[in-house]
Amino acid sequence: MKKFFHTIVSLCFLSGLLAPAAPVFAEQEKAPHIKSQSAILIDQKTGNVLYNKKDNKKMYPASITKIVTAILAIDSGEMDETVTVSKNATLAEGTRVYLNEGEQMPLRKLVEGMMVNSGNDAAVAIAEYLAGDVPSFADKMNEFAKKAGARHTHFVTPNGLYNPDHYTTAEDMAKITQYAMKNSEFRRIVKIKNLPWHVKGWDTTLVNHHRLLWDYPGTTGVKNGYVDKSKHTLVTSVSRDGMDFIAVVLKARTSREAYSDTTSLFDYGFSHFQRQKLSKGTLIEDPAGKKHALKEDLEVTLPIGEKVLKNVSASGELTLKNSVGDSLAAVQLFQPSPKKEASQVAAHSSGEATGSKLALQLTTRTALFFYSGFLMLTALMVMIRMRNKRRRALQRMRRYEKNYTFIK
């Protein structure tokens, strides 16, 4: 027996050595070490997440808030309208473009000054022009955030100056930036490196604060930020070799750390990922074996060499997934016929009814079994008791007969 046991253990050990190892994805092995407290890398075109670190942690955004202020101004359709700067705007703290009370300039110029030189005064002037006051503009910002899919974000100011109720996440800022980068005017503004600036008392050329516009090939924007509570924040977009990425890093200890983390994320994206496209007209098979033509192009971003997994539900939805089961894209492939849907519902209802009936039958049988057992046990106990009673009666009778014989 002992020899047999050792043989089994040896076979198990050998099978473990000979069995193929579980797949380890290269992107997990070689993912960059990010020092910023929160970060995310997405494909700008598909929105697929390629890297994340605490991407849903609420953080203070600082001046990357101005991405929202800029796209709201652009979407207003009033970029050529003239804005009169209020005294309140000129009193904004932090980085400014030195606007003067009563000064007039096009809304477009204010947006450019805000994004290139991070002018907090320009952000307030924009907010007051578009909504009347800062709190009303903040309401517009929050409405926009929901529209962009930012579920864990709340804005209070148009410029990102610290407020405990002014927060976002890396994931939300990536979604907001993805929306904004679809706008050609936004893309033009955030790519400006140098901007001639002429206001009363200040004649200069503004230089964009985002250093990767010079230092990382393919960078197309977007915005950096800093306040003491948020530390260094950075949102960057890059386009190169047919790929377009957006990286967000939040709460880096230094600007160098923010830039280093961002370039590491981009290097990782370019070296490990590629897009795969399912073209319009591609035939996709449903669970019943019937093929349906794709009605539109679908693109997803996957690790290089990995194949997309296709899943078609009974309701006709096609979902594209990666090897670990993450959903990358979904589209309605076909509409099931009403008759088929009705039969599925009926089958489901029938199944539920059958299941309920079987459960009831099982419960009844179980109850009968225990009740029968109880009756049998009770009857047995009664029989034993009666037998013992008769035995004691017989013993008493025998003692009585014995005593009677002796007396006689």
Automatic annotation (TrEMBL):
TM segment ranges: 368-386
Record: active site: S63 (acyl-ester intermediate), K66 (proton acceptor), S118
Signal peptide interval: 1-21
Keyword presence, Transmembrane: yes
Domain of life of the organism encoding this protein: Bacteria
Domain Peptidase S11 D-alanyl-D-alanine carboxypeptidase A N-terminal residue range list: 28-254
Sequence positions that bind substrate: K223
GO molecular-function terms, A-Z: serine-type D-Ala-D-Ala carboxypeptidase activity
SUPFAM superfamilies hit by this protein: beta-lactamase/transpeptidase-like
Cross-referenced InterPro entries: Beta-lactam/transpept-like, Peptidase_S11, Peptidase_S11_N
Gene3D superfamilies documented for this protein: DD-peptidase/beta-lactamase superfamily (3.40.710.10)
Keyword Cell wall biogenesis/degradation: yes
Family: Belongs to the peptidase S11 family.
Protein name in UniProt: D-alanyl-D-alanine carboxypeptidase
Organism expressing this protein natively: Fictibacillus solisalsi
